[in-house]
Amino acid sequence: MCNGKHVLGVSGSLRAASLNTVFLRAMSLLCPVGITFEIYDSLDKIPLFNVDDESKPKPAVDHWRNALSRADLILIASPEYAHGVTGVIKNALDWIVSSGELLDKPLSLPNLSVRAHLAHSQLSEILSVMGAVLTEECCPRSTLDAPYTLPDATEFALIENAQICSRLNELWRKIELVITNTKKL
Ligand SMILES: Cc1cc2nc3c(=O)[nH]c(=O)nc-3n(C[C@H](O)[C@H](O)[C@H](O)COP(=O)(O)O)c2cc1C
Question: Shortest CA distance to 153 belongs to which of 52, 20, 1, 55?
């Protein structure tokens, strides 16, 4: 069992009924004892990235950077838009290219879509170049036979589905293993 570890969930979709956010809420309901899980809910406050403002960032950018720094692992769930990553997640990540909050940071990046793969591999590349540590076991992929989300399902419906619940718990076990074996940065 982990003690005092903190995981930050980040959704790349601002949509109220986002499948990616619902997945994070379901993960929150299943969060193991000894781990705290926070879903970052302020990506929409982050201004558009401007290199000129990097060294004097707005409070929303400091807030984002601090939230990432505090986390032992970051769980990102983000959809594909037009064969690419969403502007929301890319904008937030551009703000930390130089400040380096993802350097050596363990990351979980599930692909919740059964058909999209371009955005997931792009995001994986973006996060890797920023120094994040992505482990295969923490980056599962939804398939038609084994989804992690369901259309229009609430987080409660997801954890009431025995197979999905078991998959989410399995992901938590893998996350726990990674953060147990990672020294505090
Ligand atoms: C503007 C836009 C572009 C999209 N482009 C793609 C795409 O290229 N490939 C794909 O598989 N799905 C695409 N979709 C579908 C979304 O990935 C899908 O609806 C996903 O559930 C959205 O994530 P969310 O539910 O967390 O908001 C697109 C949706 C929108 C709104």
Answer: 20
Specify the length of the chain in residues. Answer: 185
Which of 80, 150, 152, 155 gets mutated to test ligand 1 (max ligand atoms within 8 A of its CB)? 80
Classify each residue of 93-116 as buried b or exposed e, where b means 16 or more C-beta atoms within 10 Å of its C-beta: bbbbbebebbeebbbbbbbbbeee
- Assign a CATH topology to domain 5-180: Rossmann fold (3.40.50)
| Residue ranges with strand state E in 30-177 | 35-39, 73-77, 80-81, 84-85, 106-108, 133-134
pLDDT tens digit sequence for 158-184: 999 999 999 999 999 999 999 998 865
For the Cβ of 142 lying below 6 angstroms from any atom of ligand 1, the answer is no
pLDDT tens digit sequence for 48-82: 999 999 989 899 999 999 999 999 999 999 999 99
Nearest residue (by CA) to ligand 1, atom 5, is: 81
Tell me, in angstroms, the distance from the centre of ligand 1 to residue 83's CA.
9
For ligand 1, say whether the CB of 81 is within 6 Å of any of its atoms.
yes
User: Domains of the chain: which residue ranges?
Assistant: 5-180
Q: Whose CA is nearest to atom 1 of ligand 1?
A: 81
- What CA–CA distance (Å, rounded) separates 155 from 160? 9
Contacts of 67 (CB under 8 A, 6+ apart): 8, 38, 40
